[in-house]
Every structure is written in structure tokens, then in C-alpha cells.
Amino acid sequence: MRVLLIDDHALFRFGLQELLERRGIEVVAAVGDSSTGIERVAATRPDVVLLDMRMPGLNGLELLRRLRAAHQSMPIAMLTTSAEERDVIDSLQSGAQGYLLKDMEPDALIAALGEIVQGRTVVAPELMGVLARAVRGESKPVTVVSGGAADLTPREQEILCHLAEGQSNKTIARALGISEGTVKLHVKAILRKLDVHSRVEAAVIAVERGLCERGGSGGCGGGVGGSGDSGAGGRGSP
């Protein structure tokens, strides 16, 4: 795995570089400003870019948008201290494949990078509540969305909104009056139709595309990352 780091805090940048290299990950460049970052992305073509959100001059979100506008298609993950809802949503909508927090455990960071390089979207589990709030605040109906989401049945759309609230299969089954096994089958169908591999990615799509009406899953109020089988914060099986 070849990683490019862009972060204006030198101590953090060098420390992260050393950590990654000790784990056998090649750091092709570690730079402290957006202008140099743009140059190094073009020159090194990394497998993934780790990008700080808060930087002087061109900030991380603006840099992300500029790289996407320049057709740089490699995975880009925000690695930041910001847990602000607007930052999370704006980053995902602007083309980030990951939104990670700087206080995460090293093993979790390495695992997340592996997922991102494989083409999956990874959001720090503690930020799934942010996604759930965004879903509850959306008012755009599902029917206006084109693409794979348009193929979802009404029941699958309903379950997707419960899933985006961070609810476990057990909680969804209880809310809808169906069996947990039936919920699992629906979740598998949702992931297949949306062409994603995890509940996190499905939740991200629900937010990005406005797939749930205000009130999310019709007034369900389950907690984010519920117990039982995998909640929306995990990358486990459906």
C-alpha cells in the first residue's frame, strides 16, 4: 500500500509516517501544505491519500474538491479532529472515501486504510450518529433518486433508513414486526443493489443521496450502533 500524507502539523505528520512505515506501509510523501500536496499526488499516484481537514490557505475540503475536479480518482480519506456534522457530510459528498479521526487506535487506522484501498467507504464508528442525524434531517423523498437506489423495494427503502439510523437487525425486526432472518435477507439485497459491501457504505449513500424522508425510518428512534448483530458503525456481515 502506497500512502500520501497531507497535514500541516509536522509533529503529527512525521509521527504518522513513522507508524505507517513500521507497519510495512510505503509513505510516498508526507507534506504540510495543499499546493505541495497537489504536486505530489500527480507525481506519485498513491494508492490512498490521507488528508487533514484544517489547514491554512487551501483547506482539506477545498483540496479534496480540487483533486476530484482534476480527475484524481484514487481513494482520499480525511484524517482530522473535526467531528462536525457539516464537515463529515461535505467531505463524503465531495468524494472522500473515508472520514477518520486522529485519536483512533493505530490498528483501527491500518484496518480502515485497507478497507478504503479495496474500494469501500469507511467512517469512524463514533461518527455514525452524525450520519443518523443527517438522515433524520433530510426531506428529499426516495422516489427522486436514480441509480441503484431506485431499484429498492418499498420495504428495502424502509429498512435502509432504519439501517442508516444505526440500528441492528434485531432492532429493525422488532420495529417492523418481521423476523431477524428476513431483515438480514433484505440488508443483503440492499447492499447488492447499491453495489456496496458494508452497512456503513449503505448509510453513507442514504445521507449523500437524500434517500430518507424527514423522520428517517418513519419515526424509529433506535440508538446509533446498537447492540446485537452488526450495527451501522461496523464493517461486519449484513
UniProtKB/TrEMBL annotation:
<dbReference type="InterPro" id="IPR000792">
    <property type="entry name" value="Tscrpt_reg_LuxR_C"/>
</dbReference>
<dbReference type="Pfam" id="PF00072">
    <property type="entry name" value="Response_reg"/>
</dbReference>
<dbReference type="InterPro" id="IPR058245">
    <property type="entry name" value="NreC/VraR/RcsB-like_REC"/>
</dbReference>
<dbReference type="GO" id="GO:0006355">
    <property type="term" value="P:regulation of DNA-templated transcription"/>
</dbReference>
<dbReference type="Pfam" id="PF00196">
    <property type="entry name" value="GerE"/>
</dbReference>
<dbReference type="GO" id="GO:0000160">
    <property type="term" value="P:phosphorelay signal transduction system"/>
</dbReference>
<dbReference type="InterPro" id="IPR016032">
    <property type="entry name" value="Sig_transdc_resp-reg_C-effctor"/>
</dbReference>
<keyword id="KW-0597">Phosphoprotein</keyword>
<dbReference type="InterPro" id="IPR001789">
    <property type="entry name" value="Sig_transdc_resp-reg_receiver"/>
</dbReference>
<dbReference type="InterPro" id="IPR011006">
    <property type="entry name" value="CheY-like_superfamily"/>
</dbReference>
<dbReference type="GO" id="GO:0003677">
    <property type="term" value="F:DNA binding"/>
</dbReference>
<feature type="domain" description="Response regulatory">
    <location>
        <begin position="2"/>
        <end position="117"/>
    </location>
</feature>
<dbReference type="InterPro" id="IPR039420">
    <property type="entry name" value="WalR-like"/>
</dbReference>
<protein>
    <submittedName>
        <fullName>Response regulator transcription factor</fullName>
    </submittedName>
</protein>
<feature type="domain" description="HTH luxR-type">
    <location>
        <begin position="145"/>
        <end position="210"/>
    </location>
</feature>
<keyword id="KW-0238">DNA-binding</keyword>
<feature type="modified residue" description="4-aspartylphosphate">
    <location>
        <position position="52"/>
    </location>
</feature>
